[in-house]
């Protein structure tokens, strides 16, 4: 009798257990990121990611959600912080992608970048990755990069009109400039393709058909390093904090490459005062209230930003005005000062963010968090001595002062 009762109880418990398991399995179904355009390369392995939260299913990309339902710990003192990063990160995903401009010959250099970005961040978030090239990507490039990216990869060929001389450019004049810059040994001074690249990154990458599927981008170049764990989702941070543009390194531009960029900018300001926002970062760009450019810019080989902002009338008017002036070819305007001047004048100060956690290297500069505790918490592998932030040729100190931000403890020791 007693044995029969125990068996009954076991059956009962087993039944309850099954119901609970069924409940959680059915609750945690998640539709995943909607499939992208037709030319997506199918993932060779498994699902993009599974939702781990047993209570709240992650909202679909682009759907409204309450941030309080999905706590996102930014540091060890925040609720839900886990020291060891394992498994897919719970919570919503933003409408975002990585983007890389690369040639087929860059495959092993971009492989290194992807490996670090995946290990430090994306293996838990599985964001897509868009690769762009002015030539078709070859099979090796696609195979290697697809095997490394945990999200879906897309490969786009840049349209001819986004990678060529516009018809108003005087070819002879442009050729003379290149010859002269070569003579004066200005870096990339005689390169045509470098100029096409700068113009593409300034005015077209965000309108490329594959990029039209997203609202946010994180730019990654071949051969970069990422030194610290990124626990949280920087895209989500941007969205929830009203940020539009983020950087990690800033410095002074070579004046030889942009002698008349500021004249063109001033002309634009005069023609389009409606695009210049109040509470902008003119103080980052100019020491005399806008008369001259101090050459400070955010280094654009790392960027996290809003594609909608770049597609806005304000930004497009700015790019088109610069493009008509011809400085991408008659000088060697870089996309870094172009993006930076735009962000500095057309975004509010507090829409620009400095990502201290994104410890980063691109030859020859390093951003390594100054704060030792942070480096330990995030398991960083950079040498703090290499940190460029507070050195004389960096503009980051100026950014901190302008925004009333407190510099990290110990920054004075890193100025030399
Ligand atoms: C992502 O953004 C693009 C561009 O705005 C939009 O077309 C697309 O529908 C969005 N996707 C989702 C899932 O919201």
Describe the structure.
It comes from Cephalotrichum gorgonifer. It is a single chain. With 416 residues, the chain is an alpha/beta fold. Helix content is 34%, strand content 11%. A hairpin with a 2-residue loop joins strand 11 and strand 12. Helix 2 runs parallel beside helix 3. The structure holds 2-acetamido-2-deoxy-beta-D-glucopyranose (NAG). The site of 2-acetamido-2-deoxy-beta-D-glucopyranose has 8 residues, from loops.
Q: Considering DSSP H and I runs of 4 or more, what fraction of the residues is helical?
A: 25-40%
Number of helices: 14
Task: Tell me the quaternary state.
Answer: single chain
Structural class: alpha/beta
Distance between the termini: 84 Å
Estimated share of beta-strand residues: 5-15%
Using only CA atoms, what is the Rg? 24 Å
Tertiary shape: globular
Mean of the pLDDT scores? 90
Largest sheet: 7 strands, mixed
Ligand types: 2-acetamido-2-deoxy-beta-D-glucopyranose
Q: Count of DSSP E strands? A: 12
Write out the strand line-up for the largest beta sheet, numbering strands in chain order.
Answer: 3-2-1-4-9-6-10
Tell me the series of helices and strands, N- to C-terminal: HEHEHEHHEEHEEHHEEHHHHEEEHH
Low-confidence residue ranges: 18-22, 24-39, 41-54
Organism: Cephalotrichum gorgonifer
Family: Belongs to the glycosyltransferase 15 family.
Protein name: Probable mannosyltransferase involved in N-linked and O-linked glycosylation
Keywords: Glycosyltransferase, Membrane, Transferase, Transmembrane, Transmembrane helix
């Amino acid at each position: 009798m007693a044995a029969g009762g125990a068996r009954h109880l076991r059956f009962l418990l087993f039944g309850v257990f099954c119901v609970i398991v069924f409940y959680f399995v059915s609750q945690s179904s998640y539709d995943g990121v909607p499939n992208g355009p037709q030319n997506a390369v199918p993932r060779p392995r498994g699902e993009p990611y599974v939702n781990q939260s047993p209570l709240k299913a992650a909202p679909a990309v682009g759907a409204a959600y309450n941030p309080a339902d999905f706590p996102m710990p930014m540091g060890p003192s925040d609720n839900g912080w886990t020291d060891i990063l394992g498994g897919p990160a719970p919570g919503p995903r933003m409408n975002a992608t990585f983007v890389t401009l690369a040639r087929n010959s860059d495959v092993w250099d971009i492989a290194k970048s992807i490996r670090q970005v995946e290990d430090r961040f994306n293996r838990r978030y599985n964001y897509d990755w868009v690769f762009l090239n002015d030539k078709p990507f070859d099979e090796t490039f696609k195979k290697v990069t697809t095997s490394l990216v945990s999200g879906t990869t897309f490969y786009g060929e840049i349209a001819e009109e986004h990678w060529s001389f516009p018809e108003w450019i005087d070819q002879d004049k442009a050729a003379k400039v290149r010859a002269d810059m070569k003579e004066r040994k200005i870096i990339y001074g005689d390169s045509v393709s470098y100029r096409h690249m700068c113009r593409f990154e300034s005015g077209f990458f965000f309108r490329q058909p594959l990029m039209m599927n997203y609202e946010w981008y994180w730019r990654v170049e071949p051969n970069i390093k990422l030194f610290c764990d990124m626990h949280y989702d920087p895209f989500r941070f941007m969205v929830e904090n009203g940020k539009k543009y983020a950087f990690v390194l800033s410095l002074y531009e070579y004046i030889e490459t942009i002698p008349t960029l500021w004249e063109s900018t001033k002309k634009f300001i005069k023609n389009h005062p409606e695009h210049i926002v109040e509470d902008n970062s003119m103080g980052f760009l100019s020491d005399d209230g806008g008369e001259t450019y101090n050459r400070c810019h955010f280094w654009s080989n790392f960027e996290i930003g809003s594609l909608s902002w770049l597609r806005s009338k304000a930004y497009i008017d700015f790019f088109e005005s610069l493009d008509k002036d011809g400085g991408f070819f008659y000088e060697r305007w870089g996309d870094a000062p172009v993006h930076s001047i735009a962000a500095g004048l057309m975004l509010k100060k507090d829409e620009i963010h400095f990502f201290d956690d994104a410890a980063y290297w691109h030859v020859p500069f390093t951003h390594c968090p100054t704060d030792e505790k942070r480096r330990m918490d995030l398991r960083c592998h950079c040498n703090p001595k290499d940190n460029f932030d507070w050195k004389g040729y960096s503009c980051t100190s100026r950014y901190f002062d302008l925004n009333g931000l407190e510099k990290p403890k110990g920054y004075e020791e890193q100025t030399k």
